[in-house]
């Protein structure tokens, strides 16, 4: 049974699609969050099972607990083992042109899932949502959606297995029919309870949730999944999106569909630390995909919050505080080699390695990542975006 | 279409960059320019438009007195000996969209020059102001280096100042110190004079042989009509991505570079017969992600080409 709704969270900690803030300016308590949302921890046995089923090493985000919670992921694996495939659904709210590393995380993981399980993927660009919440013009949000699509494509999705769509372009037909089916099952009071709407919020906001819900149902995409009404859906997303899908999972059985499964990630910390906020208006709070090698070096050296001690002598004596050290946190996201990371943590924690060395390694890793992204991005043309977004069949989507 | 002098000047004004402008008859060389603006104090610049064997372009902008040795620069960029040549005339029009005799850092404002790398003489910093052509040879503008920086940053460029006269001994112990300035978007502007896309044969159509560069860097005869004719749109970039030969060439280049790096006397001694396996593993782990990424790009680009061809084809009526 789904547990209590968002507004009953512990006072202080607020996590919903539009706000993420910790209690008293501290760190987010993920255990409490899992408990309150009612999802499950992704434990080692599931990770091992993924490795067994796919004959590949599990993605670094799984190994390091970045994707740490789920709903019904084990059922997806059960079905997969039986030979029943599934499809992936993820998305982005295109609110700005500038994408930072935190934005890429769900896409990097989704690509791994697509490659590893060999399944199709739909990507929703919620330009309508941003138009409504951020008060952008329709044209501007559509433009941002296309620009963001290019960065998303640069993450390396396979065009023969991927359908990208923007709400303004695609809503209608079978998709809209499902939206109405879902909307009929959610009372006004319920949606206010889940999302915290008030009497002052405009009706666009109130009627948006079904738009994000229905890509979980294969019948929303007749050109892709015609006749496959029982295809399961797996949604990789950040945990703040959970409310949408709690609502969806509640409605699904009532309209005869499978509940979508979820696999959820924690939040990516700002350069200034877990308690800091990543903000689009502060370019120094994050590493952007458009940053040059020099920018990355600068930002990490100057702004990355260090858990090292104030002086070298003190550091050699006490070691670094790994809990708050941002370079270590970032390395745990992006340094693939488990042994190397373990070694760095050990040496740094003991005070034998200095902050400068850790930062240097991080700069290397991030520069390589951003550079590869930039190269891939440079190759994405408007024609390619059109092709990814064209309503077309994907005959080899399961191969 | 390329930026005009007027557009550039109004952009500078918009950015509130202080500059002085001096009109003069068309000049093609630094000496000629010096006749008109040489006595005004400040540094005259000489600007070289260069190209390497992989069709990557560079602007080297230096004080007129700075000695620029292309061989040294080539080594410092990691292009080996003789890797840098003067770029052919057509490239001036196509890439920089400026006429002959008008190479200038300001040409980077054009979209077509997106991938051109810029090396600026660190000597500029010591000058009150420096003279450049504002996209046209009939005028020179002088501005302080901070103004140039502001402009470059406004077009998304990071100004990089280099000691162009330095001659470090590049070798195993000292890697090319300017290697980061090599452009990464390498296949966007294939040289139109090369019909094949094989990267090995690069025909230089330039008549200038690059020995130590003196002030005369430009051909004396200038036909404005030619320059305008050459302002054609660059080749379809996706075609260069899905070109099979270049793609394979690039993979082989990377693999060879790794092989050469990893098989040395030391490593042979260290691993002996196992060296093959060791190097093979290194190649796999080092190149795997990169190759997956470039190959996915290849796949997606090829699909896109087919998709659009299909969209635009007229279906034949068959009875």
From TrEMBL, chain A:
<dbReference type="Pfam" id="PF00579">
    <property type="entry name" value="tRNA-synt_1b"/>
</dbReference>
<keyword id="KW-0547">Nucleotide-binding</keyword>
<dbReference type="InterPro" id="IPR014729">
    <property type="entry name" value="Rossmann-like_a/b/a_fold"/>
</dbReference>
<comment type="similarity">
    <text>Belongs to the class-I aminoacyl-tRNA synthetase family.</text>
</comment>
<dbReference type="GO" id="GO:0005737">
    <property type="term" value="C:cytoplasm"/>
</dbReference>
<dbReference type="GO" id="GO:0006436">
    <property type="term" value="P:tryptophanyl-tRNA aminoacylation"/>
</dbReference>
<keyword id="KW-0436">Ligase</keyword>
<keyword id="KW-0963">Cytoplasm</keyword>
<dbReference type="InterPro" id="IPR001412">
    <property type="entry name" value="aa-tRNA-synth_I_CS"/>
</dbReference>
<keyword id="KW-0067">ATP-binding</keyword>
<dbReference type="InterPro" id="IPR002306">
    <property type="entry name" value="Trp-tRNA-ligase"/>
</dbReference>
<dbReference type="InterPro" id="IPR002305">
    <property type="entry name" value="aa-tRNA-synth_Ic"/>
</dbReference>
<dbReference type="GO" id="GO:0004830">
    <property type="term" value="F:tryptophan-tRNA ligase activity"/>
</dbReference>
<protein>
    <recommendedName>
        <fullName>Tryptophan--tRNA ligase, cytoplasmic</fullName>
        <ecNumber>6.1.1.2</ecNumber>
    </recommendedName>
</protein>
<dbReference type="GO" id="GO:0005524">
    <property type="term" value="F:ATP binding"/>
</dbReference>
<dbReference type="GO" id="GO:0048608">
    <property type="term" value="P:reproductive structure development"/>
</dbReference>
<keyword id="KW-0648">Protein biosynthesis</keyword>
<dbReference type="GO" id="GO:0009791">
    <property type="term" value="P:post-embryonic development"/>
</dbReference>
<keyword id="KW-0030">Aminoacyl-tRNA synthetase</keyword>
UniProtKB/TrEMBL annotation, chain B:
<dbReference type="InterPro" id="IPR040285">
    <property type="entry name" value="ProX/PRXD1"/>
</dbReference>
<dbReference type="GO" id="GO:0002161">
    <property type="term" value="F:aminoacyl-tRNA deacylase activity"/>
</dbReference>
<protein>
    <recommendedName>
        <fullName>YbaK/aminoacyl-tRNA synthetase-associated domain-containing protein</fullName>
    </recommendedName>
</protein>
<dbReference type="Pfam" id="PF04073">
    <property type="entry name" value="tRNA_edit"/>
</dbReference>
<feature type="domain" description="YbaK/aminoacyl-tRNA synthetase-associated">
    <location>
        <begin position="24"/>
        <end position="150"/>
    </location>
</feature>
<feature type="compositionally biased region" description="Low complexity">
    <location>
        <begin position="195"/>
        <end position="206"/>
    </location>
</feature>
<feature type="region of interest" description="Disordered">
    <location>
        <begin position="184"/>
        <end position="206"/>
    </location>
</feature>
<dbReference type="InterPro" id="IPR036754">
    <property type="entry name" value="YbaK/aa-tRNA-synt-asso_dom_sf"/>
</dbReference>
<dbReference type="InterPro" id="IPR007214">
    <property type="entry name" value="YbaK/aa-tRNA-synth-assoc-dom"/>
</dbReference>
<comment type="similarity">
    <text>Belongs to the PRORSD1 family.</text>
</comment>
